[in-house]
Structures are given as C-alpha cells and as structure tokens.
C-alpha cells in the first residue's frame, strides 16, 4: 500500500473545502494520524475484504432493520481499522491510527422528487475525498445538488 501519512487537520481541511454544507459543522474525527490508501487498494483489497465480511454474516443486501445504509457505511469505516491491524506492511508507520475513510450522510437524488437521505463512505486519496458506495463496493460521483447536502462526516 502506498503510504501518505496525514493529520486529522489535513483531512478536516480537505472535507471543508469539498463539502460546502459540512463546512459550518464541527468535525467528528476520532484519531490524530491517518494513512491514505490508493484507489486501487480500495477497489482490489478492501472491497473483497468487505464482501467476505458481509457474506460471513449473511448481510450482503440492504434490509430495513439491522443492515440499513448507515450500518453498511459505519461497518465499512470500522472494518478498515481491523484490516489495517492485520496488514503485514511494514511501511505503514507505527503512529498511524487509522486509514483515511469516513462515513457521511447526503441527500441522494437531491433536486428530484425521488430524493432520500443515504449514507455512504468517503475515501481520502489523491489529495481529495472520493465517494464510495459500500453496498456495491464502487466509487461514484455526487451530483452538484447532492454535493451541497453532504453532512455528518465521521472519520474514525
């Protein structure tokens, strides 16, 4: 895994610059030192790891109770911490507490009659936060209207 060590302040600054509606809210950051991953690491290593985790618990699909979108997003953000602990990669400095992933809420379909609140993950790499749907284990782009609704960013 390529290593880019970041402070929580770096991650907060990038989030405030990218997500206008979140800029006025206080941060919910749980650690001080993070490591950024690459997009390919997320797509190849973490996506498979998360799928195996969900499959082992019989939770591959969305359900109204106990496996809602916020559960998927929070589970993914916390599972990355477990994967980091298992990584034999000696190039990750010992002071790193977590991988730069977040869970956030946004208004999916904002500006349309079908708009609903939804929770997804954000991964920090290449100098910015990137939206990732944990239920499909794929990256996506917020529409301009959706981007303005991103809030409740939690960086474990």
Elements, N to C (H/E): EHEEHHEEEEEHE
User: What is the average of the pLDDT values?
Assistant: 86
Q: What's the number of extended β-strand segments?
A: 9
Q: How large is the share of residues in beta strands?
A: 25-35%
Category by helix and strand content: alpha+beta
Radius of gyration from CA coordinates? 15 Å
Give a quick account of the main beta sheet: strands, pairing sense, barrel closure.
6 strands, mixed
Q: What is the helical fraction, as a range of percent? A: 25-40%
Tell me the distance between the termini.
19 Å
Describe this structure in words.
With about 160 residues, the protein is an alpha+beta fold. The protein is about 35% helix and about 30% strand. The chain has four helices and nine strands; from the N terminus they run βαββααβββββαβ. The protein has a six-stranded mixed β-sheet with strand order 2-9-5-6-7-8. It has a three-stranded mixed β-sheet with strand order 1-3-4. It is globular and about 50 Å long. The protein starts with a strand and ends with a strand.
Secondary-structure map with pairings?
Blueprint: E1 4-7, H1 8-18, E2 28-29, E3 33-36, H2 39-56, H3 69-86, E4 98-99, E5 101-108, E6 116-125, E7 128-133, E8 138-139, H4 144-147, E9 151-155
Parallel strand pairs: 2-9, 3-4
Antiparallel strand pairs: 1-3, 5-6, 5-9, 6-7, 7-8
List keywords for this structure.
alpha+beta
How would you summarize what this structure contains?
The protein is of the alpha+beta class.
């Amino acid at each position: 895994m390529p290593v880019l060590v970041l402070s929580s302040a770096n991650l907060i600054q990038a989030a405030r610059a990218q997500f206008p509606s979140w800029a006025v809210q206080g941060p919910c950051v749980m650690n001080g030192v993070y490591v950024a991953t690459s997009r390919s690491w997320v797509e190849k290593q973490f996506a498979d790891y998360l799928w195996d985790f969900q499959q082992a618990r019989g939770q591959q699909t969305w359900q109204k109770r106990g496996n809602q979108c916020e559960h998927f997003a929070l589970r993914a953000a916390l599972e990355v911490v477990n994967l980091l602990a298992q990584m034999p990669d000696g190039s990750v400095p010992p002071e790193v507490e977590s991988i730069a992933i977040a869970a956030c809420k946004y208004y999916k379909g904002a500006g349309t009659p079908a708009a609903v609140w939804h929770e997804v993950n954000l991964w920090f790499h290449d100098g910015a936060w990137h939206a990732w749907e944990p239920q499909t284990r794929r990256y996506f782009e917020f529409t301009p209207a959706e981007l303005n609704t991103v809030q409740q960013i939690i960086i474990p």
